[in-house]
Amino acid sequence: MKRDDVIEYSLGATHSEEAGKAIRKKIYFVTALLSIITILEVALGVFWTSMGLPWLAVKFAFIALTILKAGYIVMVFMHLGEERKMLKYFILIPYAIFILYLLYLLFVEATALTTISATTF
Amino acid sequence: MAGEVTKNIDQKTLWEGGRSPFSVSYGKMMMWFFLISDALTFGSLLASLGFMKHKYVDVWPISEQVFTHFPFTHAHLPLMYVAFMTFILIISSVTMVLAVEAGHRMDRKGVTFWLFLTVVGGAIFVGSQAWEWMTFIAGPDGDISTWADNATLTQNYYGRGFTAELPVLGPVQYSQFFFFVTGFHGTHVLSGVIINLIILLGVIKGKYEKVGHYEMVEKVGLYWHFVDLVWVFVFTFYYLV
Questions:
Q1: Domain residue limits at A68
Q2: Of A7, A42, A59, which is closest to B79 when you measure between CB atoms?
Q3: For residues B189 and B2, is the Cβ–Cβ distance under 8 A?
Q4: Is residue B6 included in any domain, yes or no?
């Protein structure tokens, strides 16, 4: 049954041939960027010892590159950057709060456990 | 890109009923809800992996010394195959977003082509994962027939400083997390491939042409990008860090 008081949001998500060209350009740009980041990560993973880099810096570089990659996937590929602001924050903020809280708890607990017993498994 | 964010709607119209303040259809909203809950599962899984890594920080195996194999060659190529897998998944994510873009132009041929490539990429990834499980289970000597030194849920012969001649016991959580995290993710990829295939058949039959929009492709696209997103984190937190 068709109801005329319900807005069909699905029908609005169309664009013209010219707009499509611009969107594809952006997609290819992001593809190149994600590939470069992946190559950088693997190179860092393989060569960091022979380059004599400190492990802590390498670790944070990995995490930063991963979050950058994830940001591009969510914002461009999943179109979250083009959704309404309210939907964007409604998805991202509760999730971020919960995971950061969980990470904080687990790292504190793990560090405490390490001081109790290091090698029991 | 012309998305909902560029539309100027005042607060009164947005929040006083009669429309969705988020300006998305029911199906897309529910897909996002599902993805949030799934992301919480994966997030907790990876957080607990971080917990174990911190607890066994001195004995936890270094993945670049464990994953050194490449199919059809005996060369020592640390992390190369898993990098290849990551690349395949990113490319299949790109073909998916191109399928969604073609759908917004009502280009049925384009959607069919890109969605087909996405299915192929996903299938290659699942196959690669099966191969990686095989080599991981085979143990440091690469022989799957000697069950005594296979990596399983109860033993891990990839301890710190292991060699093929001298396997060293490591924390069993390393192999448990390997099988659980990559297995859970692999199940998602497999279901994603099957769902994409079903939607591809619908596209070929012209089902979405009749409906008037290709939002179904966009919805399964969201799921597929999510699978790629999770792998980006698994790659970092299991293999690299």
A1: 1-82
A2: A42
A3: no
A4: no
